[in-house]
Write a structure and sequence with these properties.
This protein is α+β, with helices and mostly antiparallel strands. It has helices at about 5-25, 40-60; strands at about 65-75, 90, 95-105, 110-125, 135-155, 160-175, 185-200, 205-210, 215-225.
Length: about 220
């Protein structure tokens, strides 16, 4: 496994561990829960106690929810797996997606876990130095990833989030003409930061930037409580 994939796995493991640590340490509401009970006295201790009570009240009113999301990403990063070769150059690339869908379970006010699926298709023609057609690569990819998200409220109707996803891809690749054969990656990942904005009580619009299967991504989310 090369260094890039190893680093991604380490970073993702850190964020996942931090998410679960919030559930264990603070009752699912950050790190203020139990640490606030350490023997502080005076005004500082009183302020800590008040903040602790606020956090408890906020978490006690939270009800777990399920979100169903549909989105579209751009560009399709799978095209980057194919490069120019000696005497061969990429032409005008056509692409579909990736089209994304996910189901996420938000188990406390700041964290969710779910399953994300993507579908994408790219077609890459190759020409020689005189712009003569030499061949083409067609790649169709389905990916399934475990999706972990962390949330922070911005306003009553806007929420900032970070997410990391790890999984696998099923690739269907077809080569035509004089094009070198490569094996597309079967390891799939996506890291991203974004925000979602309420349109109605249960429907939100989201937009994000990241890297993995796409660079920019947007779509709609529907909440089931």
């Amino acid at each position: 496994m090369n260094r890039k994939y190893a680093l991604l796995i380490v970073l993702s493991s850190f964020f996942v561990s931090a998410s679960y640590a919030q559930v264990i340490i603070g009752g699912g509401s950050g790190f203020g829960g139990r640490f606030g009970r350490i023997g502080f006295t005076g005004g500082g201790g009183m302020r800590r106690q008040r903040n602790e009570n606020k956090d408890k009240n906020k978490e006690s009113t939270f009800k777990p929810e399920i979100s169903v999301k549909i989105g579209y990403g751009f560009p399709n990063v799978d095209t980057y797996q194919f490069s120019d070769y000696v005497g061969l150059y990429k032409g005008s690339i056509s692409q579909t997606g990736p089209i994304t869908s996910s189901v996420d379970y938000k188990y406390n006010s700041t964290n969710s876990i779910g399953i994300m699926a993507t579908y994408g298709k790219v077609a890459i023609p190759y020409t020689d130095g005189n712009n003569n057609y030499e061949g083409k690569v067609n790649l169709e990819t389905w990916s399934v990833l475990a999706n972990f998200m962390q949330f922070r409220p911005l306003t009553n109707s806007a929420t900032f989030y970070f997410h990391e996803a790890l999984g696998a891809s099923i690739n269907n690749v077809n080569y035509l003409g004089n094009v070198p054969v490569i094996t597309p990656a079967s390891f799939a990942y996506q890291l991203g930061v974004g925000a979602k904005f309420k349109i109605s009580e249960k429907t939100s619009f989201f937009a994000e930037a990241g890297y993995g299967k796409y660079v920019l991504h947007g779509g709609l989310s529907y909440c089931i409580k």
